Model the fold of this input.
Amino acid sequence: MESGINPWSGSQSVDIDRLFAEFGIAPVEDEVATLKNQPSFFRRKIVLGHRDYGPIVDAINSGSRFNVMTGFMPSGHPHLGHLMVMREVVWHVEQGGSGYVAIADREAHAVRGLSWDDCKRYGREYLECLYALGFEGTTYYQSENEQLKDLAFEAAIKINFSDLQAIYGFSQETALAHADSVATQVADILYPQLMEGPAPTVVPVGIDQDPHIRLTRDIAHKMRWFTVLDQDAVISVRSKNAPVHAMDAIAAAFPGSKRYEGHVDVPGADCLSVSEKVRAVEVAEGGYGFITPSSTYHSFMQGLQGGKMSSSVPDSLFWFDESGADVKRKVMGALTGGRMTKEEQIRLGGEPDGCPVYLLNLFHMVPDDEELLEIRTQCLSGSLLCGACKKATFERVKAFLSDFREKRDAVSHMVV
Ligand code: TRP
Ligand code: SF4
Done:
């Protein structure tokens, strides 16, 4: 398979550096340097990569319009592994973004075979979690959103089977509904702009979703009516099957421009301002004028037992509604970066960096940087032993879960 990433296969280990180099994902660190208050997922390098995140940083810093959108496949109860994306979405909403969350029930039904009823039930739980974490904005089930489905159909005009084969490894045996769920996800990502007009849109996802991002960026571009080329002497506005009335409108929008069969040349102008005006004309004439969506990529937390965190390995994670006893067993039984014997650990210190318990704290359980550093320092120095560390971690998890449960109950009425 060309892409090396398959969003539907659960068993893969991705080499982040290689993927970044190969697919043009850029490190996010430099991009977010101008953010005044960096959230912990940037500070702690949990969110590592991005495509086109610059416009989002600009929008946050200048207070201009942007969207944050993501989707959850309701194929089971929400769990620890979903928390990072949820927090990213909520943070972007807090920074002024318009929030959108899709429950990908078309995907869950078509690809995972879940009944529509189960999709409904699980979907509710994801939405409840989001609202409990402070989400505000628009949520929907794919199957119930007629405008979304119409947009998916329009997007599908620009998607062909060789794209699907190249990007996802689809074959002659792939179900048409599976392909349809891909078009639906493309539509999810473009939906905020359908609702509110063109604006930068960031999609926070795990690296496994990058194929969808690449496809959507390509399709968003293909759905534009015009491309704008800087040809030094003139800025050339080229039609890609734009209707005649839109070409007329472009010519009229730029006095002194020269109109040709398939393009309009604008002399003495600046490319960026022409592009923005062209986008506005496109929208006014009934086109989409999509801005190519942006994305961020978070790294995946290791499972509590080491290895991949996955709902198919129940001890690798906990579900948010799991019993206290089960959560305790999982945290206390987690793999650590500790030494073979107590003496050795006191002498050499532990190894927090690959330790799932440490990572659980780093990702989610210790918001305060100094407190986290303290844990790390004590671990490295051998003054903190794994038993005590796991116990303290479990207490944090317990407090988090009970607070989370309370908040979920309080917002449950917001899920319709
Ligand atoms: N395919 C995603 C998953 O498996 C869910 C999803 C649906 C999504 N629509 C989306 C993710 C839009 C990001 C943006 O979890
Ligand atoms: Fe991990 Fe804590 Fe043990 Fe250090 S002391 S290795 S952080 S469990």
